[in-house]
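Risk register update: the risk of archive-format incompatibility is retired. Evidence:
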Amino acid sequence: MEIKEKIIRDLDRIINEYVNEEFVLGLSVGVVYGNEIIYTKGFGVKNVDTKEPVDENSLFHMASVSKTFVATGIMQLVEQGKIRLDECVIEYLPYFKLKDDRYKDITIRQLLSHISGMPDEDDYEWDKPQYDEEALERYVRSINEKELMWEPGEKFAYSNISYEILGNVIEKVSGMSFEKCMKENILSVVQMKESNFLKPLVSKELLTSPHVLDIENVYGAVVSEIFPYNRAHGPSSTLCSNAVEMCNYAIANMNEGRFGGEKILEPNSYSELWREYASTDWGGYTSEIGLAWFLGEYKGNKVRSHSGMDTGFRSNLIILPERGIAVVVMINSDYIGTKILCTSILDILLGEEVEYIRKSLASHIVRTMFSNNIEIALQEYNKIKQNSIEEYLVYDEEFNAIAYNLLERKRINEAIEVLKLSIQIFPESANLYDSLGEMYLLQDNKELALEKYKKSVDLNPNNIEGKKIIDELSN
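Archived output:
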């Protein structure tokens, strides 16, 4: 009992400090230790305007964590003999079609493991949500002009489109809507009573609001004008859940499908779900891909995980099955990463002493820039670099994410300012130059775009897309 009490005490301390130090609006955390739920708590507010507090039952949009439920649904149908993983998709969806004939060879397994060659979706039309039961099939029929990026099975490339197709397969094979199938065969079985893929059925009282970055008056957050929901993208993205119920789901997966006296899968299905199919090149505990689940190691422990991000929300589910440990984190803003929070919690669960959670350098420096100017922001960075850099996360990706967040808000000039600032901090980052080139191209400033793309390719000769753009701009 003492170990659990210490864990809870340490979690309370570091998470409360993190919420106070960082610009975290609303946060919910669930922790499983020794195969039992020991911690479910909410922090901050559900809505920046109403100030209603988050608790362990508050519901968050889970974004791409939804995909692991799709894989579970497919494996249930495999166990029933209704789907074969290596069967071609067209056997289940005769109307599935793409621009080139290679689509006929795509298998269910390839879609699940993101190795089908399918591209990703650019526009989820959250601002034009569809609610009718035909929305998913309509979407799958609408992708007939898309082309594969390479031969099916060749290599990994993350694709949300793949999961809409899989959700549609579940509908046709099960004979019920995707959302109903998920509710009856997975969510209800593991006592996820409030969780649902179908937003109209989600409790309005429990649901948190999405928040996006705002710089109108001061660097901060506002409630997003859109909620990331569209029934056409249900399978890839639209599960709403809470910390308690996601812990139930984590326990079921750690116990090879069993939860209480019920089960969502047979144990042998996990040899398919958690088998390594391809390298992601992402490293760390997401270095390989299984069926939906990302695979890897953290400090010598096997990890199964999936994270998510959509407008106004972030989420992460991490399972260490051999240790009986799981962490779920949900945030109702999209400009705060979840990884450092999750790994800090994991460190505590693995018996390490954690003094604090490192803060986001990008968030602090960009906030300083918008409150003052670039020169003062750089002075602040140099001061931190000399005195306390170990307390911060120093990642160029975080600056990049903020820039794209601003771009999504149609704040392209401010996004460019963020990238110009970040390049002074990371002068060797090919990715930042590539992003800046893209922003200048969006402004139709071809001269500056060409200059930045050339710099990006100089720093990273493997930037094939950058080379193509340089050729186009040069001609």
